[in-house]
Specification:
It is built from 14 helices and 6 strands. The chain is of the alpha/beta class. It folds into 2 domains: about 190 residues, 3-Layer(aba) Sandwich (Rossmann fold), CATH 3.40.50.300; about 120 residues, GI Alpha 1, domain 2-like.
Amino acid sequence: MSGVVRTLSRCLLPAEATRERSDSKERSRDRDAHQQERDARRRSREIDSRLSQERRSIRRLVRILLLGAGESGKSTFLKQMRIIHGKEFNQKALLEFRDTIFENIIKGMRVLVDAREKLGIPWQNTENEKHGMFVMAFENKAGLTVEPSTFQHYVPALRALWQDSGILEAYGRRNEFQLGESVKYFLDNLDRIGELNYLPSRQDILLARKATKGIVEHDFVIKKIPFKMVDVGGQRSQRQKWFQCFDGITSILFMVSSSEYDQVLMEDRRTNRLVESMNIFETIVNNKLFSNVSIILFLNKMDLLVQKVKEVSIKKHFADFQGDPHKLEDVQAYLVQCFNKKRRNRSKPLFHHFTTAIDTENIRFVFLAVKNTILQKNLEDIML
């Protein structure tokens, strides 16, 4: 009997072993499935956490858009933000600014030489006609740098021309043609800039003029709050790019060159520059997209306005001006009034500041006030 049992047991063992192996595999598959499910839930929680952090980060991000007509000072303001928040310019950037400055000087003098002739102003020294022809022959192909050794060839001619009363008289009538505002500063510093080992100072960088094409951004953090400042070209040809930057805007800093009340646009040579700024401001400030966006007006280039008010009557160009056209306070009040009238909804005060973008301390002080205004308005989102 026992032999039969043993024989049966030997016959049954493979079947039981197969079942055990099958059960073991099934348990293993269950464990793997449970582990995969746990891993999937963990990954899902991690993704949700990251998305939540990104949403909080996006809500906390203070996104400031710089808008305004060409040459209103937006790029200079952005340079100041870099300087104030400790992001120094590297060697490559300094060399690029040096090239821009060389071009600013030579092209600026070309404009003055051409204007002197068109305005019928005689040379003080007829020998300077040769220098004028030499500078007018300057040609720099796009993308090529002007080496210091090349620029040095032009320095004697530039120096002689800048001392000629004919060129100085043309400069005095610069509102009749298009001339960069920094040309005088650079020509006054020609000896320093003309040295072979010249590298631009901070002030040189702030005054270097190169039209912004496309979109330039600068990120910085103040008291753990992230800021993104966006500069978009202000020339008419660049303004279609503004719409690309309108999403998620916290605030708009609208820049105006307050001293340009006697100047016309480079683009059409007929439209008054200040009128153009007012028209752009009217479009922006009344746009429904910005109903919950703080718009702060920067009446820039105060240093130039202070000087111009003494020399040029604003009433010649804006007949409705009331007050003393040579009194700075009256002109400032009129400018604020002009822009304020462009707002359809004037139930809230117009936040505005008179600024000098090339003055680091002025911009440091003004931006502190602006930052507090922006943060107060957006405190709920920022604290989340």
